[in-house]
Write a structure and sequence with these properties.
134 residues; mainly alpha
Amino acid sequence: MGQKPTRIIRRYSLAFKKQIVKEYEAGESASALKRRYGLSNTHMVVQWVGQHGREGVRHKLMVIQTPEEVDRVRELETRIAELEKLAAQLSLDKFMLECSLTVAQEELGHKVKKKSPTPSSTKPKVVSKKSEAS
């Protein structure tokens, strides 16, 4: 019978890693180094630069904001958290009402018909300027 193909595990020497880091720090891109040396992914280059590099990875995200923007972001994050809590509460309320309806139907022995919304209740009310003036 044929043998199962063995998995190849590559181990790179410290000298090799430092050479890659040196080339990266000289301006070479991680993807170019990956292609040139046949590395499996660019994450290895980034990881080696983080471990052995002098400056670290070139591309880090830096957000520059005015104090007003920082305050606005905090306000929006707070609002998002409040809305997420509200959505969770509404979801629980809806579930509780559906369960109560199911129990009521079982106790009454027949299905309780849900009211469908009337067409006027689903459409937003439009107020004309003429009716406001009167």
